[in-house]
Amino acid sequence: MLEAIPLKEGGTFIHLSYSYAYGFTAKLVMQAYLKTLGSDKVGFTVIKKLPDGKPLHVRGIRGALERNTVCYFLAINAYLGALSAPPQQQLEKRLRDWFASTEGYPLQLHKLEQNEYLDMKRKEYKRQQVGG
Asked: Which of 15, 95, 119, 125 is buried deepest, with most CB atoms within 10 A?
């Protein structure tokens, strides 16, 4: 759920909440992902510092939830930031701004290089426009 409340200073307070639930099959798939392809993925919470001073980040489902939450936040920022651009330029601005903001968290959010990401999202957008 997304709620927005205007503030007196001209800003907006945004409250985002969501729940995460899945069935038995999805649970098995998620567990398999977290033990294989997603085994090196981490969240943002630091559990403790290792003897060498490096942080140990949360993993597993909590790490996945933290990554998703940050991605949603960055998507909202990119969407709102692109509203100042002419309509025909908003999509490209949103995509580029979102990607740039995720690169600020490479340990948690880097998946693709920028050109790969932009190509994938442009194709996805075109498919959505033709209804399939």
From this structure: 95
